[in-house]
Amino acid sequence: MTKKISFILFAFVLMISSLCFVSCSNSNETVKDGVIYQKTRKSVDGITIDCYYASGCNDDIEILQIAEKINGLSVLGIKDEAFKNKTNLKEVVLPNSITSIPLFTSYFLGCTNIEKLTLATDDVLNLFSDYGSANEKNTEPLPKSLKKIYLTSGCEKISARSFRYCKYLEELHIPSTVVKIEDGTRGTTIGVNGNLPSTDKFKDLPFLACENLTIFCENSTKPSGWDSYWNYINESTQLAVIWGNYN
Fold first, then answer.
1. Residues 87, 109: contact at Cβ < 8 Å?
2. CA dist 181 to 26, 47, 85, 175, 184, Å?
3. Is the pTM of this model over 0.85?
């Protein structure tokens, strides 16, 4: 009898230890609404803080909405290729806490069915490819399915080259918080490896070759901080702009 009780106690302790190990090993991971978040530490303005990064999601999710906070901590980024080949995704919403997308991160590489994207940064090309805004191939950098992009109030600037060659994009919605759009006409390319410097004034337009795009602006008129050729797709053709209508 004593041996039997001892065995039961031993089994119980073993089970509790096992559960404790699982809990401890996953203590830095949280799942919310089918999205996986990993707790990490990040240096912000020289200060190291605790935060979360989105690291994946369930395969059947069609609308992916990444939270701005998890367990009281900000979600400040996404793990590289976190949602690679999630072909069920049709819509993606990133929070205002994610204000930049680094090169070569390719969070949504292979996500070929996304139709709508909402985010607080113009670093859109870096989401889908392994070359991002460094693209020199003159090819469509976004999935052909992506038709609508909504920039949110966390976005303040659109840089030269940001959306170039996005030939299938149909709508870009720009909030009033965007105080600067660079047209790139004052930039030059320094000659490298025997190549001559580029003097093409219009090579860095932010919407170069976006022939199917209409822009919806929350502002009623062009802000003074937007450059002269901000909505040109070549040296003579402007995109259609609908003022005073963000939606």
1. no
2. 43, 30, 32, 12, 9
3. no
